[in-house]
Amino acid sequence: MKLDAVVRKQQGISGPLCYAGRVLIITLPMLAMSYAIFSDALAPYLPLLLLALIGALVSTGLVLNAVVGERTRAFEALAQALKTLKEEAIRDPLTDLYNRRFLRDYLSRELMRAARESIRVAVIMIDLDRFKRVNDTAGHAAGDFVLTEIATLLKRHIRGTDIACRYGGEEFTLVLPNATLQSARSRGEAICSAIREEGGKLMGVTASLGVAIFPDHAAEPESLLRAADKALYDAKGRGRNQVRIFARGTARISAFRSKTAKRAHGMNRPGKGGLASGNGCS
Length: 282
Known about the structure:
Alpha-Beta Plaits; 6 strands; 10 helices; disordered N terminus
């Protein structure tokens, strides 16, 4: 922000007339005073003096304008470089999804906002099944291709308000603000099915997904990620290629929960807590 302001300021003061005008304001009164005192002696040379003065002013203005223009371009290049570096710091270079560093910062802010506004936030953890087999049999270039295709697929299945991150390796994370348990489950199942349907392009890779909801399942960012991860590994343990919901409520935010939300939560909770039965991809 400060750098942009400096750039605008530099652009606003460029131009030879600006500099020439400033110098004229200072020099013309001095010239007038000198002429009043030495008018008889200077009269024959006055046109030449004025011409020399104007030439000097214009030359100075042109030089200064060139210097300021170069400086402005340097500021603009620096601003662009800083913007690029900022993007690179929060993006995964292979998939162009957000990275784990961004996820940590974003999720903390999003949960604070959700607590203030009494809304839910869903986290979906996604792990590609038997991805190592692709690297081992087809090579790492093929593995990279699969990862970029998965990233493209995830972008197609999220809203503008959602974010998709590469959590690490073949694991991805989605954050869905203002999502219900049912909408998060439906989104997970749609993604699971889409990955399976593209099995030919993705070399037989499928996905296991775990879903957790703030504040029903966890009240803190790390706890919410662990809850989604636990549901993910339950999906892995039950045969892969499916969505599992973490259902044991551990939230400590407490004034948040409408009667409707309580009923919905109660309907989705299995007998004594633990993990709700998830659906396989359909």
